[in-house]
Amino acid sequence: MRGLHSANDINRYSFVDTLLPVKSYYRISLADLAGRKIYSRIMQLQTTGEFTVSNVTNYFETGISLDVNVNRNSQVALTLLNGSGNVVKTMVVNAYTGTNNYIIPSLTTLSRGVYILQVRNEEKTVTVKAIKK
């Protein structure tokens, strides 16, 4: 879809994908007048509205990246536990309807080993194993 060529205006575009399966991945290509392109990060869209956690970085070193899908705007608690069940990091983030990507940063000082990531909203808790290199 061709866009307008003014940096001073806000332009809104939309696209309806009528062949959307349960889960799809998209990214946006932006081109300037000289033909140089940049790309957005990859976005995951999901047609089911259930609370899910996916794409969790395993074998992490500095941080853990994860995708959280929610069916409505809400807050989500991210809690990282060590092998003894002690909380080593906790974050509360705002989640917006659809798939959201989060990064749990600053994990370089953690010891190598197995950790448990709990992702919780007001309805459900999802538990995922993560391994520190």
How big a fraction of the residues is strand?
over 45%
As residue ranges, the low-confidence spans are none
The counted number of beta strands is 11
User: Residue-averaged pLDDT, rounded?
Assistant: 84
Distance between the termini: 44 Å
State the secondary-structure class.
mainly beta
* Largest sheet properties: 4 strands, antiparallel
Strand order of the largest sheet: 8-7-10-11
CATH top level assignment of the domain at 50-132: Mainly Beta
Q: Identify the CATH architecture of the domain at 50-132.
A: Sandwich
Summary keywords:
Immunoglobulin-like; globular; 133 residues; mainly beta; three-stranded antiparallel sheet
Characterise this structure:
- The protein has a domain of 83 residues: Macroglobulin (MG2) domain (Immunoglobulin-like), CATH 2.60.40.
- Helix content is 0%, strand content 48%.
- The protein is globular and about 55 Å long.
- The model has no long low-confidence stretch (mean pLDDT 84).
- The protein has no helices and eleven strands.
- The protein has a four-stranded antiparallel beta sheet, with no helix packed on it. The chain has a three-stranded antiparallel beta sheet with strand order 5-6-9, with no helix packed on it.
- By secondary structure, the chain is mainly β.
